[in-house]
Amino acid sequence: MAVIKPIKALRFTEKAGSIESCVCPPYDIISESEREALIARNEYNVVRLELPVGENRYDEAGRTLNDWYGNGILARDEKAGIYVYREEFAVKGREYCLTGIICLVELCEFSERIVLPHEETLTKAKQDRLNLMRGTGCNFSSIYSLYSDESGKIAEIIAEKTKEAPIHRFTDEEEVTHSLWKIECENGISDIVNALAEKQLFIADGHHRYETALNYRRQLVNPPENADASCVMMTLVDMDDKGLVVFPTHRLIVDRKVCREEIADKCADSFNMSVLPLDQLENALEKGENGHAYALYTGGNDFLYMELKDGAQHNIDNRSDAYSDLDVSILHSYVLENALGIDKENMANQVNLRYTRSLDEAIESVKSGKADAAFLINATKVSQIKAVALAGDKMPQKSTYFYPKLKTGLVMNMLQK
Q1: Fold of domain 249-378
Q2: CA-CA-CA-CA torsion sign (406, 409, 415, 416)
Q3: Domain boundaries, the chain
């Protein structure tokens, strides 16, 4: 099944400055102003490689990478290993600790059922990442995937390693503490490789990057002698890790009038509905978590609470039961498509649809007039992600938001042997 390999990582040296000033969030959540702030903090921030700008940005990223490597800002490990990566953080006053391993994973087509996706992807984003791989020959950020470790063997190895002092430990601006260790012991590496050899891997975050790696391998018909496009860098996390947190991704409707009474009328056969004061919104969603609950906010001091009626659910678009049971699938089909007339192509191209993981931002967007309406939903469960992937299906885009995001630049992968 899954083929795991140690990584001969590319990492920042002391010449680059403090590691916390060199790393950055994932490229797709960095604004232009945030990018400028990262570079202002440290000219060697990895955002210059991961999110280049300008007309010849991909070639420029390649030149910058070669310059930093040649001048000792970046250096490649002499010995391959498997890294242990930990994030410690708090959500709503509760403390969490998430731990994974960073390694190489041999690329497999999705049809092989070894690495399984759960979410649809966008062509434009994949082309951007492919151009970057061509220009740099490097994975700067890690794909985030899940596995099952019923034996507890990998957890034991991680527990032993994390008793040692970490290579890096720092706390970022979101109060997330990041720690990194390296496993070089051949027995430890072998035990991890063997423990994962019969496993399937479920992509949590990084679908675009995985599909890009597949495309890069397909197009590299005559690779250079020292090139290795057979593997991609991943951070693997046990899906039973108590530190796994998935945030909901709320839907914002823009440039389209939304009449709450009209939505209520069109959805009356499928949903039980009531108007509640705005300060009850979070509690209402939490109480309805197992009953497909939603909140429609169009402004003012109240919202329309919507909960799917018993027996109203049906198979959606001839998709799997796992897909049809998702809150986001029901919202898209019953409400956005049927009641609002926003079709799948519109959603895919984000004509009238925007996303946010912040409930406060969703409400404020409507109050300020940036959005016409907000549909607030509950988070997708990890068990649902696994069920959809095993069914060979894919969720709508932006169905999951794993928190916190993995830092880019702690460990990188040069596509060389």
Answers
A1: 3.30.1760
A2: negative
A3: 4-246+403-414, 249-378
